[in-house]
Design a protein that fits this description.
486 residues, six-stranded mixed beta sheet, 3 domains, Phenylalanyl-tRNA Synthetase, Chain B, domain 3, alpha+beta, Uridine Diphospho-n-acetylenolpyruvylglucosamine Reductase, domain 3, Rossmann fold, five-stranded antiparallel beta sheet
């Protein structure tokens, strides 16, 4: 061992992060995501050393994506050997062993989806929290990437300390500290050779942008991480002010222009961004703000939306279908485009509001192999025979619709659920759902299948149902809807 100072410094910083954000409670089951690198080995060592005093049960998880051949297998064996020696329960997922072949050109995004699909399922099944080893170096790199791509206060806040079941105790710890911590404890680690290449944008920021900034300020990483902390506070304040503004401006199915235009521009823009939900790009918010100031006119926006300003009021409505626009027609102001009802059949369905729905029916054995690559994998899947018993209809929402939340013994009206999820009012009319006669919602876009429909070992066929934004002439969108609380 070199010295005890690196051990005390890292553990003090991580414990303060846990306390500051309330990341863990006595009795929690914590699964550390471990790749075998210095950051993740330090994370697991930290929980093994400090977890018992915090009343935590500590386990580990490792994913072999199969992208690096023998090197991936080496890392998996390294993590497994450590966990055997320390008697740490290890949850493993191996893409090669599951018969999952990476698609051509698969890279970091594909690997991330595979990894988090496994982690999400693991946390649900085990009732656990997942700890990742993101450091303040990762925070600084993420901030620069967000700024380069264009972001608002939320993007400038960087990586959150907690999101759902995922916690990040090391956001105030540097990469240099994790390596010093491992060395002080005599713990080796493995090195991913792809981290030295410039194939990925994050690596280019790490190898070139940050070193250039450090010639200006050697404490660049610390400064950027502190900036993210401040922006997280700013973002929280603006969000609260924006909610108050929208509540004050609300009028029927629209918003009065005078309160919006009289508000501070930062609060107004945040309020308009919240109306646009996941499509709140900077250019779209700017167009919507300009329309609000003009007080008259219409503006197409991302997500299949049309904004109208008239008679002192701002309204958002689904953009008229493309065939109506070609003929010069338009849905009446304030009225959504007509939505069809149709039986659910396997294949791809183009739905009103720019949604594209894909329904797949898989044999259960094939589903087990492919399951981890699905985003929100279990929420998107159901026992096909159970669904067919209800003679399901694909439609939009209707008064009285109710939905039983997956994983919870709780049924809510769609109105309440969409209000809690802060789904923009203008997008609710076109939100697709699958329903049984009588108003029971079986599947809701963005939420998944209702409780009780999930596949079981007795399942013969699995229905995989997903919805994405389809590309339109005006907007190139292909995003999966996500409620804010997810």
């Amino acid at each position: 061992m070199e010295t005890t100072e690196p051990i005390a410094a890292l553990e003090a910083a991580a414990l303060e992060q846990l306390k500051r954000h309330g990341l863990v409670q006595p009795g929690d089951r914590v699964i550390a995501a471990v790749s075998g690198g210095a950051d993740s080995m330090a994370l697991l060592l930290f929980f093994l050393r400090c977890g018992p005093a915090l009343g935590l049960t500590v386990e580990a998880a490792h994913v072999d994506h199969g992208l690096r051949g023998e090197a991936s297998a080496r890392d998996a064996a390294f993590v497994a050997a450590f966990c055997r020696e320390k008697e740490v329960p290890l949850h493993r997922f191996s893409a090669p062993e599951e018969g999952i072949v990476p698609p051509e050109g698969a890279g970091e995004e594909w690997a991330r989806q595979l990894r988090y699909g496994f982690f999400e399922r693991l946390c649900r099944e085990q009732g656990a929290k997942l700890a990742t080893a993101h450091t303040r170096n990762d925070q600084a790199e993420t901030l620069l990437l967000h700024l380069a791509r264009g972001c608002g206060p939320a993007g400038a806040a960087g990586i959150p300390a907690v999101r759902g079941a995922v916690i990040r105790p090391f956001l105030t710890v540097s990469r240099r500290q994790t390596e010093a911590y491992c060395r002080a404890l005599g713990q080796p680690w493995v090195t991913d050779e792809t981290n030295t290449a410039d194939d990925y944008a994050r690596n280019r920021v790490r190898h070139h942008a940050l070193p250039a900034l450090e010639t200006v300020n050697p404490q660049t990483v610390e400064a950027l991480a502190r900036f993210c902390d401040r922006m997280a506070l700013v973002d929280g304040y603006l969000a609260a002010q924006a909610d108050t503004l929208l509540e004050a401006a609300k009028q029927g199915s629209g918003w009065r222009l005078s309160p919006l235009n009289e508000a501070h521009p930062a609060v107004r823009d945040e309020a308009l961004a919240r109306l646009l939900g996941p499509h709140a790009r900077a250019d779209a918010v700017a167009r919507l703000a300009a329309l609000a100031r003009a007080g008259q006119g219409a503006q197409p926006l991302p997500g299949g939306l049309l904004a109208r300003a008239q008679e002192g009021e701002l309204r958002l409505e689904p953009l008229a279908p493309r065939h109506l626009r070609r003929r010069g027609g338009r849905a009446p102001a304030g009225e959504p485009a007509p939505l069809p009802e149709r039986p659910l059949t396997p294949g791809t369905i183009d739905w009103s509001g720019g949604w594209r729905i894909t329904a797949q029916v898989l044999e259960y054995e094939n589903f087990i192999k492919l399951q981890p690559v699905h985003k929100k994998d279990l929420n998107s899947c159901a026992d096909y025979d159970k669904i067919q018993q209800y003679k399901p209809i694909l439609r939009s929402r209707m008064p009285g619709d109710r939905f039983q939340l997956p994983g919870r013994n709780c049924t809510k009206t769609l109105k309440k659920l969409l209000n809690e999820g802060r789904v923009p009012v203008a997008q609710r009319a076109a939100l697709p759902l699958l329903a049984a006669p009588g108003g029971r919602v079986l599947w809701l876009c963005g939420q998944g299948f209702a409780a009780g429909l999930e596949p079981t070992p007795e399942t013969r066929q699995v229905l995989v149902l997903t919805a994405q934004r389809a590309e339109t002439a005006e907007f190139e969108q292909s995003e999966e809807w996500k409620y804010e609380h997810e």
